[in-house]
Write a structure and sequence with these properties.
The protein is an alpha+beta fold. It folds into four domains: about 100 residues, no CATH class; about 100 residues, no CATH class; about 160 residues, no CATH class; about 35 residues, no CATH class. The strands form five sheets. Strands 9-2-3-6-5-4-10 form a seven-stranded antiparallel β-sheet, with no helix packed on it. Strands 1, 12, 13 and 19 form a four-stranded antiparallel β-sheet that branches. A hairpin with a 2-residue loop joins strand 5 and strand 6. Helix 1 crosses helix 2, helix 1 packs parallel to helix 6 and helix 2 crosses helix 6. The longest helix has 20 residues. The two termini are about 45 Å apart. The N terminus is likely disordered.
Length: about 450
Amino acid sequence: MSQITSNYPNFPITEPTSALMNEDLLIKVSKKLGLAYYGADGTGVPSVPNDPADLALCQDIVNDAIRMFINDGPEPNGWKWLNRIAQVDLWPQIAFDPTNATNVSAVYNSTGPFAGLTTLTLTSPPPPPPPPPLGQVPYVAPTFLASMELRPIWIGGNPPANTPGLNLTVDEFPLSSQLGTQFTIVQYLGPYTVNIIATPASVVPTQTPQVPGGAFPAGTAVTTEQIPALIQQFGQLNTSSNYAIGFGMVATGDYTLPADFGGQYTGPISFIANTNRGMILRWIDEFSIRQRRQNYNIESGTPYEAAVRLIPTPTYSFIGYIPPRQRWELMTWRISSEFLSVIFPYTLHFNDLVNLYDTPPAPFGHDEAIKAACYALCEKEVDDSMDGPDWTYYKTTALPQSKLVDGRAVPKCLGYFGNPTAATSKTPAIRAFRDYWYQRPTVPVFGTS
């Protein structure tokens, strides 16, 4: 059996059935190297290697081949498909809901791909609250966001009063004195599902719940495995059925960027379409934001400046968790007082393929070149040759053809873009073109993104 998790996608696939996935590339490489698995009796359909060492070799070749293909991009600016658009969701402080209107469940994963993590799920959104008093921001039911990765979350109560970023004048709910247990969101799985892990700061505030093996001493650090029993003892959550539980999160103006963001944004930043906040968002250096924060701990509202930086070491120290790879974060000034979304272009950085149904980062029109790169790397790494037929085919045929495919991503021609029905034009040909062949679209002030 394969040692790679077979995670089937849970969304509609828009690519054709001929598009190559990680499993297809692994099978092709393993067949090339004579490492494919043909079943116990050797007569089955070829599949990925059954031996972990052989599988690791094939996976390394696939990932290294994709890395080589990216590095061989057209000069001077590289592949056009590396230019992507990121949407980052901003959130305000989320206060603990004393009514416990949000239903959740938590399951500790002792085995599998999430071993050692607790999966926290919002099983249903809370009902709409009554209208807020005049002048206050209406409460928005919280959902998990991808930008919440590597951010602390307090389950069963609010953060302590001295927590950086805690705003004591939130409009959603009065901050109750009930303290929560601190954990860290380490993996975003969807709007209602995240994986969390305990942090060294996780302590039991006052009570002494019973856990398997005896009493849990008050003030002792909580482990991830103990959270289901801990919360169950508090009467807020049970792993076998849904109980009401609230959580709190602080807002510091820092939001985790996608894992494939490598620090290079390539254009202006803006709010998404129809935001309608009358505020222009612009890039600025991170020092300017950091300088303001040293004098103003909390200034919330609609952000108007943004910067990017590597998540600093003090942040990791506070959450008590160091990820296997450094991540970048988006800084904003001011701290967002509501749920907003921003978008900006950036350069994609390659994430290794891990699961069988992962897809290469390049569009499927480049699959032939990626397959050829895998075969070429087999010759280079295994046969120690860079003049064989596979290497030659990749360099002289597949790669140049892929560059032509990439070049066709730009507009095929540039022409005149004028206004329709220009009655003052003295050139009938141009006026006819404007009137009958090209109608300039009406572009609203807040158009679609």
